[in-house]
Amino acid sequence: MTHEASILNDSLPKGRKSGHIKVLDKEIEFYDEETLIISLPLARLKISQGGTGNRYVYFTHEDYPGWTISTDDKKVLKYDAIKRDDSRKKSVSKIKNNRRILKLSILSMVGIVISSLVLFYIFRGAIVESVAHQVPVTWEQEISGSMLESALVGKTVVDDPKLVAELDKITAPLVANVNNKDFKFSFTIVEDETLNAYALPGGAIVIHSGLIAKADHVNEVAGVLAHEISHVTRRHHIRGIVDKLGFFVLLRAFLGDAAGIGTELAVIGSSLEALRYSRDYELEADESGWELMLRANLDPNGMIAFFEQLQHEHGDMPSEASFLSTHPATEERIEKLKAKAQNKTDYSSIDIDFEKFQTDLDVFFESK
């Protein structure tokens, strides 16, 4: 049986020649095709290991200085003639042990990589949130202006100071109780019959007139706005973008290099379509919106009333609502909010004549 090998010696062209070896009972022979180049006696033959990853087995002999046979075919070590001598047997055992150690090391590294990947994806949500919070709020605010302009194209916008002041009575207690003061909130009412409101990154919130017109109580509007404010404060827009990043980009950002996210913001972050949120983000906004209503001492049950009305009009997935609708009123979400309801009754009242506010909005739009 032959094994592919190479032989090294200064007398050879370029100091090296490829060929094959035969292990016989008393010697190892190296051939260039059918030509015998050298025969090394097994007596006093030295065996060693080397090369990248200890890939090669080397044969040298003290009676043939300068000559080295190498092969990466480890089957050559299985011959009884090779292992007959005690010193060579030790060399073979050492090489085999090194191979086992290398295999175990590789398996360990593979195991560590796989475990890291598994853990990464298990905790991906927490990692995404951590990376998102590395992005300055000013990044969101920089793109918010152009997004708001796009959102208002072709829309009739409420600019009457008295109506804006009335809206401020609803939004002021909510904004005052936002913990992170870095966000700069603004609220704009547009003429649109759908029951909808949506938040742009950075704090601009657009309210459809249909939401106000069809609400039975001012706390329903406040509850929806608390939900939208929570999309902003929980950084859902940025988290949605970050979650789309590839593994290595996300990992690098998690380790402190968030520069690459700026490019993603510029590419996909400024599109209105990017405002679609996942089910988990919607549930999170419900939770945070509920807590914001409580901090403002406003009755959070208005959120439940709104979702029930939306469900009544459109079902679990409102097909007639705007594509920007971020709050399909599923039974699951309503039940989760109902489970949080309290017997508390001493909530603060918003100082507004809500029915007059609704009427004045209708008059404003009729005049346009």
Quick rundown:
α8 packs across α10. By secondary structure, the chain is an alpha+beta fold. 49% of the residues lie in helices and 15% in strands.
Please explain how this structure is put together.
With 368 residues, the chain is an alpha+beta fold. It folds into 2 domains: 101 residues, Pleckstrin-homology domain (PH domain)/Phosphotyrosine-binding domain (PTB) (PH-domain like); 243 residues, no CATH class. It is built from 14 helices and 10 strands. Helix 5 packs across helix 7 and helix 8 crosses helix 10. It is rod-shaped, with a radius of gyration of 37 Å.
Write the topology of this structure.
Elements: E1 2-8, E2 16-23, E3 27-32, E4 35-41, E5 45-50, E6 56-61, E7 68-71, H1 80-83, H2 86-122, H3 124-132, H4 137-152, H5 161-176, E8 186-190, E9 197-199, E10 204-208, H6 209-214, H7 218-233, H8 236-242, H9 247-254, H10 259-269, H11 279-295, H12 301-314, H13 331-338, H14 354-366
Parallel strand pairs: 8-10
Antiparallel strand pairs: 1-2, 1-7, 2-3, 3-4, 5-6, 6-7, 9-10
Helix pairs in contact: 3-9, 5-7, 7-11, 7-12, 8-10, 12-13
State the main characteristics.
single chain; alpha+beta; PH-domain like; 2 domains; 10 strands
Count of strand segments: 10
Rounded to the nearest angstrom, the radius of gyration is 37 Å
Q: What fraction of the residues are assigned to beta strands by DSSP?
A: 15-25%
* Distance separating the two termini: 96 Å
Question: pLDDT average, as an integer?
Answer: 82
Helix content: 40-55%
Biggest sheet record? 7 strands, antiparallel
State the order of secondary-structure elements, H for helix, E for strand.
EEEEEEEHHHHHEEEHHHHHHHHH
Q: DSSP helix count?
A: 14
Secondary structure class reads alpha+beta
Tell me, what's the shape? rod-shaped
Side by side, the strands of the main sheet go 4-3-2-1-7-6-5
Low-confidence stretches: 317-327
